[in-house]
Write a structure and sequence with these properties.
Nucleotidyltransferase, domain 5; globular; alpha/beta; five-stranded mixed β-sheet; single chain; 10 strands; 217 residues; disordered C terminus
């Protein structure tokens, strides 16, 4: 039976999960931006609670962003280090894909489009659009907020549900059925998503960092 370590350091709170012998235990550290200081102790604590060790690990799943640049690096470096040392595969997942998956489940796969929007720099965002089947129509993308507003208004004939903490200028508001604040990644649902994505079609191969800089001239 699989023993899978889940790592999410993309947000202020550090989250870990360990699936062992069919039982999932989740550990969270609520002190913001202390991921590097607490990761190793949290992983050791999880292994102890599940009465297993590093040798028992069969896979590692890490959330590869978007999110805190330092947080993402801590999570990926930890996953890669353990994966290399134990010779177990490491799978990388987009936070946007996971958040959309959770929300689609929350809405019982109601027909329409689902969009998760996270803040990047000032006036810049990360976003992803999927349909009710979880099929990704626009994969995790970094864009100017102005460009995202225009894109959303281009979907005037579609029912779209948006989750974000940002104020969006969506003029064709009638097509938006619901706007809600972004949720934290739920490792229990991530565990289900992991099982669905073993084909590799939903797995990222690298971290989604904030690399591009937009300059208006």
């Amino acid at each position: 039976m699989s023993t899978i370590l889940f790592i999410d350091t993309t947000q202020e709170i550090c989250q870990l999960g360990l699936l062992h012998e069919g039982q999932l235990i989740i550990e969270q550290h609520t002190v913001e931006r202390q991921h590097a200081a607490v990761m190793n102790a949290m992983i050791t604590d999880l292994l102890d609670k599940q009465h297993c060790n590093f040798e028992a690990l069969t896979a590692i799943a890490v959330c590869a962003g978007p999110g805190s640049y330092t947080g993402i690096r801590v999570g990926i470096a930890t996953a890669q280090g353990i994966g290399f040392a134990r010779q177990v595969p490491v799978s990388y997942f987009s936070a946007l894909t996971l958040l959309n998956y959770q929300w689609i489940n929350e809405c019982n796969s109601e027909k329409g489009l689902y969009t998760s929007v996270l803040k990047a720099r000032e006036q810049e965002v990360f976003f992803e659009i999927a349909n009710e089947k979880g099929q990704i129509l626009i994969q995790g993308k970094h864009a100017l907020l102005e460009a995202l507003n225009q894109l959303l208004n281009d979907y005037a004939n579609e029912k779209m549900q948006i989750q974000t903490t940002l104020e969006l200028q969506v003029h064709s508001i009638l097509h938006v059925q619901k706007i809600k604040e972004i949720a934290r990644i739920d490792i229990r649902q991530w565990c289900q998503f992991y099982e669905l994505s073993l084909s590799g079609s939903l797995i990222k191969d690298q971290g989604l960092y904030l690399k591009d800089v937009f300059i208006n001239v």
